[in-house]
Design brief:
alpha+beta, five-stranded antiparallel β-sheet, five-stranded mixed β-sheet, 30% strand
């Protein structure tokens, strides 16, 4: 009988933690982004700052790209320092590039080109798009 009560309390606490985490993650993902359209007008680029309970000190954000021909699909990057997300871009037939970040249109992937970029534990929850990291030894990092 004691074990059932303890198990119920532990289960309740775990459930509450999951609810708090899900709510905080929703807050990060639903922030009002800064938006701009690509030169071809086919893609919408949005920069959203992350903050709140899961990113308490701010300074992080993510880029999401929406193909306006398929607006239900959103391609989000992992967390990146806010000040590095400059939405001045270059677009050609193969990719959309902003400084330090490239979105490959055909494969729908990102290439992160900052040699000092570091993974954040929230990346697996925020980023929904495959990405590659450019190591300094690759020679094409900024």
């Amino acid at each position: 009988m004691k074990y059932k009560k303890t198990l119920a309390v532990v289960g309740g606490l775990l459930g509450a933690c999951v609810l708090v985490f899900a709510s905080a993650l929703y807050t990060v993902l639903e922030r009002e982004p800064y938006s701009t359209t690509s030169p071809s007008s086919r893609y919408l680029l949005q920069h959203a700052s992350a903050g709140g309970l899961l990113v308490p000190f701010g300074g992080k954000g993510y880029l999401q790209i929406i193909d306006l021909e398929d607006p239900d699909r959103v391609y989000r990057t992992p967390l990146i320092r806010d000040w590095t997300l400059d939405l001045r871009m270059y677009e050609d037939d193969n990719s959309i590039s902003i400084f330090g970040l490239e979105f490959i249109k055909a494969s729908k992937t990102y290439i992160i080109q900052w040699p000092d970029w570091e993974h954040h534990w929230l990346d697996r929850f925020i980023s929904n798009t495959p990405y590659e990291f450019c190591a300094e030894t690759d020679g094409n990092c900024y």
